[in-house]
Amino acid sequence: MSGYLDEPSGHVSASVKGAARRADAQRNRERILQAARDLVREPGELKLNAVAKACGIGQGTLYRHFPTREDLLAEVYRREVEELVAAAPRLLEAHEPLDALAAWFDRVAAYARVKRDVFAAIEAATWRDLAAHSLGPIGEAVDRLLAAGRAAGSVRADAEARDVIVLISWLSRLDDAELDARGPRLLSILIDGLRPPRP
């Protein structure tokens, strides 16, 4: 218990209390982001008080994490990009390269929904900045997946990350019904197009 209790009072130390507060704040932040991600899909403008209510926290707590609606939505999008990029190496560890790419494309469809809804809810200057900063990491993830596929002989030699990004960018322009109906088929066609040509 040394270092955890103040001597000789036995009270919990300030460092432990501080760690608990930080952990609690991180949990609140995660709940806020998840609630905003869910609510941004609903019709109408996203309201911060609705996010706070969905999380069961006070509006003051929400504003401490995200002072404005755009701050919150920008972070929702950044988190989605981080998770999409992080999925690529995990999928390559668990699957053959082309299967990993197909599974990653399934994750892209979810990302496309978030991108569409967030970008529709924020100022053009903000979403352009977010898009510009996300292009590099997403391109690197695609390049990693394609390189693994080329090395395994399951992806055509001339496939480039930019080709894939241009093609998948159209997903964020589809509404939910069309994304559900066409998304899997479009991504399957893309996978087939990435295979090496037959001799």
Automatic annotation (TrEMBL):
Occurrences of domain HTH tetR-type (ranges): 26-84
Record region (Disordered): 1-23
Q: Which domain of life is it from?
A: Bacteria
> Which Pfam family, any one, appears in the UniProt record?
TetR_C_43
Keywords carried by this UniProt record:
DNA-binding, Transcription, Transcription regulation
Q: Give the DNA-binding residue ranges.
A: 47-66
Tell me which SUPFAM superfamilies the record gives: Homeodomain-like (SSF46689), Tetracyclin repressor-like, C-terminal domain (SSF48498)
Q: Which Gene3D superfamilies match?
A: Tetracycline Repressor, domain 2 (1.10.357.10)
Q: What is this protein called?
A: TetR/AcrR family transcriptional regulator
